[in-house]
Amino acid sequence: MANGNGQGTNGQAGIGAKVAEGVREGLTKSRNSLQGSQLWSSIFRPGSFLRQGYSDSPRNRSYVIMNNVLYHLHPVKVKRHAVKVSYTLCLGGLSFFLFILLTVTGIFLMFFYRPTAAQAWNDIKTLETAVTFGSLVRNMHRWGAHLMVISVFLHMSRVFYHGAYKPPREFNWVIGVVLLLLTLLLSFTGYLLPWDQLALWAVTVGTNMGGFTPVFGDEVKFVLLGSKEISSDTLLRWYVLHVLFFPFIIVIFMAVHFWRVRKDGGISGPL
Ligand code: HEM
After folding, report:
1. Do both 118 and 238 map to the same domain?
2. Pick from 20, 38, 73: which residue ends a domain?
C-alpha cells in the first residue's frame, strides 16, 4: 500500500531492517576489534568467556581456574570429598576469614587509638561511647580474636582426627603449629592495648612467667617489657608487635600453608 510520500510500508520496513543490520555489524566489528586488542587480552587471560573465540571446553574451564587471581589458589580438579563441608567443617577457611575480619576492624580501630599510657585508655573509652560504630567494631575485633583462637584450635583437632599430620603433610603440620603460636601471640599482645586493670595484670603475670626462663630470665623479661617494669614503653612495644610484626609474619606463614596444601596433593583423603 502506498502512503502520501509515495513509499510503501514494506519499503520502510526494509530500510529499518537494513539500518538495524548495519548497526549490528558495526557493533560486532568494534566488539571484535576491542576483544582482539592487546589491552583486552592482557586483562582477560585465556579461558575467559570475554575473550575472542571463547568456547565451553575442558581446556577453557581449566584456564578459568588457573588464570584467575582468586581461583588459582584452588586446584583445577578437586577430590569429591574435599568439597564436602562435613569433612573440613571449613575450619581452616573460617580461621582465614576471621583473620581478614580482624585486619579490617583493626585498621578501623587504629584511626582512633594512640598507644601511650596517657591516651590509650581514654581512646578506648571514646571509641566505645563517641565514635560512630566504634563500640560495634571494637566488639567485632574482640570477639573475632576469641573466635579465631577457637577455630584454629578446632581446625588443628580436625586435622589430627583425620591423621593429616602424617607424611606427606608433616611439614604443613609444623607450619600449622607456628600459625597456632602466632595466633596466640597476636591475641596476647592485643590484650594489653586497652591499658585497663585486666590488661596490666594479665601482662604482669605473663611477663613474670617469662622471667622464669632458665639462665636468661631477666633478659627475657626486659625484652618483653621494654623497661624494668610495665610502662608506656611496654605498651608501644606490644602495639608494634600486635599491629605490624605478628600480622606480617602470620601472612607469610599462611601463604606457605595454603601453597603447601596444594603441593601435598590437596587435602587428605576421607577416613
Ligand atoms: C591461622 C591459622 C590457620 C589457618 C588460616 C589455616 C588454614 C587452612 C586451610 C584453609 C586449610 C585447607 C583445609 C581446611 O580448611 O581444613 C588447611 C589445611 C591444613 N592445616 Fe591449617 N590453618 C591454620 C592453622 C593450622 C594449625 C594450627 C595446624 C596444625 C597444627 C594446621 C595444619 C593443617 C594441615 C596439616 C592441613 C592439611 C589438612 C588435610 O590435608 O586434611 N593448620 N589449613
Report:
1. yes
2. 73
Task: Mark whether 236 and 110 lie in a shared domain.
Answer: yes
Q: What mean pLDDT do residues 90-96 have?
A: 97
The answer, yes or no, to whether any atom of ligand 1 lies below 6 A from the CB of 79, is: no
Residue 5 has pLDDT above 80, yes or no: no
Q: Does some domain include residue 2?
A: no
| Ligand 1 and 268: CB distance under 6 A | yes
Within 10 angstroms of residue 185's Cβ, the number of other Cβ atoms is 16
Interval 82-111 mean pLDDT: 96
pLDDT at residue 8 in the model: 54
Let me know whether 48 and 173 are in one domain. Answer: no
From the CA of 182, give the closest atom in ligand 1.
Answer: 1
Question: pTM for the complete prediction?
Answer: 0.85
Ligand 1 contact via 66 beta carbon (within 6 Å): no
Q: How far is the CA of 75 from the centre of ligand 1 (A)?
A: 16
Instruction: Give the contacts of 83 (CB within 8 A, at least 6 positions apart).
Output: none
Amino acid at 146: H
Quote the CA–CA distance of 204 and 193 in Å, as a whole number. Answer: 13
Assign 137 to helix, strand or coil: helix
Task: Indicate whether 40 and 160 sit together in one domain.
Answer: no
Domain range for residue 13?
9-73
3-state secondary structure (DSSP) of residue 8: strand
Domain count, the chain: 2
- Residue 136 forms part of a structural domain: yes
User: What tens digit of pLDDT does each residue of 38-81 get?
Assistant: 999 999 988 888 988 889 999 999 998 898 888 887 888 888 88
Cα-to-centroid distance, 137 and ligand 1 (Å): 27
